[in-house]
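Posting for a labmate who doesn't have an account.
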Amino acid sequence: MKTFTYFAYFLILLLFAPSFAQKKAPYFELFDEDGNTVKSHSLKGQPTVLVFWGINCSSCREDLPKMEILYQKYKEKNIRFFAIVMDSSSIDEIKKRKIQWNFTIPVLIGNKKIMYKYRIIGVPITYILDKDMKIKKVLYGVQPVQKIEKILLQLLKNEKTAKN
């Protein structure tokens, strides 16, 4: 009964809470796969893509290689990418999965705090943040590369316009 009550509360919060669009991304402090700490405020200044995923997620297996294409294309254009794993802290398991699924996007180790702050109720979920850490888009599930690329191009265009 207690579990059901928490689930119902979480569902109500999710459904009736204000939208994340145009809000500042919640703060996080996570370890990367090399043991270094990554703090969200250190990402300010560049657009960032956060892909929440799971080790045993079949949709993530489809999604991450697509994200890898965008990562390779846009990492030199000052867009950062991080794949935040939500169901494992085993570095060996994470590195094995990166090889199996053919992606090199830097991985951060997720936790319950970030799951709650970013409303992660399933994976994959992708957050696209602007240079000021404002949430520009939240994408649920596997998305076409063209759709994500269109969002990234618009973000870069807005960044360029803001500089001029």
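Reply:
Got it, the structure tokens are right above this. The chain has one domain: 23-163.
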